[in-house]
Amino acid sequence: MIPIRDDIPSRSYPVVSVSLIVINVLAFLYELTLGSEGLELFFQEYAVIPARYFAAGYVDPFGRIHQFGLTDLVVPVFTAMFLHGGWLHVGGNMLYLWIFGDNVEDRMGRGRFLIFYFLCGVLATVAHIVFNPESRAPSLGASGAIAGVLGAYLLLYPRARVITIVPIFFFIQFIPIPAFIVLGVWFLQQFFAGAMSLGAASAQTGGVAWWAHIGGFIAGMALVHLFKRKDYWPVHRDLWWRTR
């Protein structure tokens, strides 16, 4: 299933969501200018590498020995949220942020939503580090923070209809599916893949930080009621029942 849009209009323009999309895209375009070796060095510097948080000294793939201070460990937690490993990676993440971010931002307000987004991203990264303590693979991407947005959306708009591309044999169907099914299936996929990755030799089986997705989603569900506005009313009152 590939979601393409929902049917809940927002009351205001999603400034924060659009700004995050623009920054992520610009960061990815900058990555394309670095070349393969330069990009690897860049990821070593600004992506999250779990093994760094548990080792007194860290030897990177270039044979350099690092001793990390607090700043060296904290900064990548935030910079990694704006880095991506390929066109599908950045495109998929930005699609989900575009579809689901506007309504969550609308429900929280711009300032609260921005804080919520980064907090979910941080908690997603912590989950990834905890479940993959020996990983030396750079972890990057906005998916942990966006997973938090999905968790919030699930509780705020469970009955919203999400127009989804569903391939049936050789035919492509556009089917409206309730959000709780679309996002529930997504979370179950992440959970089972994450559970299977625990016994794998690689901390990022298949190149996906499953536990960042799981941690971000749970963080979003746990935090949403602390950040949502109490005086919210949807732009069309006949859509109110779908937000309850």
What's the CATH architecture name? Up-down Bundle
| Largest sheet, spatial ordering of strands | 1-4-5
Summed up, the domain count is 1
Text of the CATH class: Mainly Alpha
Oligomeric nature of the chains: single chain
Tally of DSSP helical segments: 8
- Spatial shape: globular
The value of Rg in angstroms is 19 Å
Order of helices and strands: EHHEEHHHHEEHH
CATH homologous superfamily title: Rhomboid-like
Strands, count: 5
The largest sheet, given as strand count, sense and whether it forms a barrel, is: 3 strands, antiparallel
According to CATH, the fold-level topology is Rhomboid-like fold
What is the helix fraction of residues, given as a range? Answer: 55-70%
Overview of the molecule:
The structure is a single chain. The chain is mainly α. The protein has a single domain, classed as Rhomboid-like fold (Up-down Bundle), CATH 1.20.1540.10. It has eight helices and five strands. The protein has helices spanning 15-32, 35-46, 70-79, 87-108, 110-131, 143-156, 179-197, 210-227, and strands spanning 2-6, 58-59, 65-66, 161-168, 171-178. It has a three-stranded antiparallel beta sheet. It has a two-stranded antiparallel ribbon with strand order 2-3. Helix 5 crosses helix 6 (143-156) and helix 7 packs across helix 8 (210-227). The protein is globular, with a radius of gyration of 19 Å.
